[in-house]
User: Fold this.
Amino acid sequence: MSTFGDLLKYLKIYRRYLGRRMYLIFALSIGTAAASAFGITLLLPLLKASQVGSGSPEDMGTAEQYLYDLLAWMGIADSMVGILAFIAIVFVSKGLLQFAKGGYSGYLQAQLLRELKIQLFDAYSGMDYRYYIRQNAGHFINVINQQVNRFFSSFSSFIGFFTQVITTTAYFATAFAITWKFASMALAVGAVLLFLFKYLNAYVRRLSRRRSEEMSHLNKFLVQSLQSFKYITSTNQTAHLRSGVVDSVKRLTSYIFRQRAAGAFTKSLKEPASVLLIVGLIALQVAVFNDPVAPIFVALLLFHRGMQAVISIQGGWQSTMNKIGSVEMVDGEMETVLDHQENRQGRALGPLSEGMEFDGVYFAYNEEDGNVLHDVNITVPATATVALVGESGAGKSTLVDMMSLLLSPRRGEIRIDGVPHNDVDLASWRDQIGYVSQETVVFDDTVANNISLWRGDIEDDPALRERAIRAAERAHADHFIRGLPNGYQTVVGDRGVRLSGGQRQRLFVARELFKEPNLLLLDEATSDLDTASEQHIQDSIDALKGETTVVIIAHRLSTVKNADRVYVLDEGRVIESGSYEELRMRENGEFREMVDMQSL
Assistant:
C-alpha cells in the first residue's frame, strides 16, 4: 500500500473512534504553521527598513510587494518599531494557537483511550461464547491493555506527523513565494529524501506488526504460567516454560532494538542533512543566479525550518509506524469481536413458570469434528430438580451451557416457557440463572464482595449484610468466614488462593444462593467438599425443592437421590431417564451399573 493510502487508512481508523472533532486539530495546526511562516517572512521588510536607501517598491518581488502593501495599509511599512511590534503580535498569536492545539490534542488522546477501553470491554462482554473459547486470556489482556495503550500513544505521533506536513508546506510555500528558484531546489531535495525513507518506513511497519504479535504470544505464556504457578512449581516444570518465555522475550527485544535503531538513524540525519543542503543551495544561489541577499536570508531561514520539518515528517511517520501494529491489531480485534457478538435481543422472559424443553437438539463445536450432542430430548419442569449423570465426556456440561444459551443448537430447538431459544432476550433469561461450575470462580477481593458481586458495602447496608450472611449460612460458609482474619472483609487473593478448595467452592455456592435464582445450575458443585460440607449444601439444595428449578450434574450419585428426574447421557445421547429409584431398579441399565460401582 502507498504512503498516501496508508494515511487515509489510518485517518479513517482514528476517525472511527473520535469522529469529525479530530479535524479541529488540523485546523489549529494550519493556523500555527501559517503564523510561524508569516512571522519569519516579516523579517524581510524589517531588513529592508533597517537599510538606508533600501530601494523602492518597484524593485521588490510579487510576495514582497504584497507584504509591503499590507504594512503600508497598517501604517508601519517604514517603521522598524512598528514591524517589530507586529512580529511580536504574530508570534504571540502563534503561541496561543500552539497551546490550543496541544491542549486539544491531549483532550482527544484522553477521549481516544476512553473510547477504546470502553468499546473493547463492551465488545468482549457481548462476544459469542464459541469465539471466546477459541482464544486465550493472554490475548485479550494484551489487546485491552498493552495494545490499546500503544494505539493511544500512536495518535500523538500521527498528529505530530500531520503537523509537520502542514508546517513544511507552509514554510516551503512561503519560501517559494519569496524566491522560487531557491525553494524549488529545496523542495526537490526534500522529496528525494522522503522517497528514500519510504523503504525504511516499510521496514519499521513490519517490525511493529511482529512486535504486537509477539507481545500477545508472550502475554499468553506469562498469564498461563502465573495462573498455574502452584502446579508448575510443585512439579518443577519452570525450566521448560522458561525456555519458551526467554525465546519470546528475545524476539520481542530484537524487534524493539531494530525499531530504536531506525529511529536513531533518522534523528542523526536531521541536522547534517539540513546544514549541508542549505550551504550548497546558498552557494548556488549567490554564485550562479546572483540573487540579492535579503530574500535569500529570509528564504534560508524558512528553508532551514522546512528541512528540519521534512526530517521531522519522517520521524513522525516512523514513530507512527512503530506503533501501527497495535493500531491494526486493536482495530482488527474490534471488528472481529463485533462480528462475533451474541444476538441478545428478543422477547423478555418473566420468572420461569412452565420449564425448559430440549427438542431434537444436536450440537457441534466444529462441524468437522462431528456432533457432541445427538438428538437430545429432555424436559426440565419449573421448580423441579433434574439430574444429569454419565461418564466424563458424555456431554453434560455442554448441555448445561446450552441451558444458559451460551451455546445454541446446530439443529433442533430449546424452548423456555414455550419461547424458542432464538427469540429469547438473553439478559432477561440469564438474570434468572445461578451457575456453579466445575471451575471455581472467586475474585481477588473481599469475601463480602465475592458473595454480593459489588452490589454495595455490607457495613453500610444492613439489609445487604443480612442477605449475604444468609446466603453464606445456606452454603455452610458462614462459620469459616467468621474465622478468617477480617471476617467478611477478608481479601481472599487471586482466584481465592488464600482459601482451601472446599472453602472456595462454598463461597462460590454462597454467591449463587445470594442471587436467589429461578434456575440453579450445579456442575459438580460439591466435588471439592468434605462429606460434612457436601451434606450441608445438599440440604440447602433440597430446601429449594418446589421453589427453584435445579439442574445438577454429578458423578457422585448420592447427590441426586432426591432429584425428580434423572437423565443418563452417554457419548452425547440420552440413553435413560426416570426417577432415581426407577433407574436404580432397572435391570441391565447403565444407571444401575453406575450405582453398583459406587456401592450405593
User: Anything to note?
Assistant: The first strand starts at residue 355 and ends at 363. The first helix runs from residue 3 to 18. The CA atoms of residues 103 and 308 lie 24 Å apart.
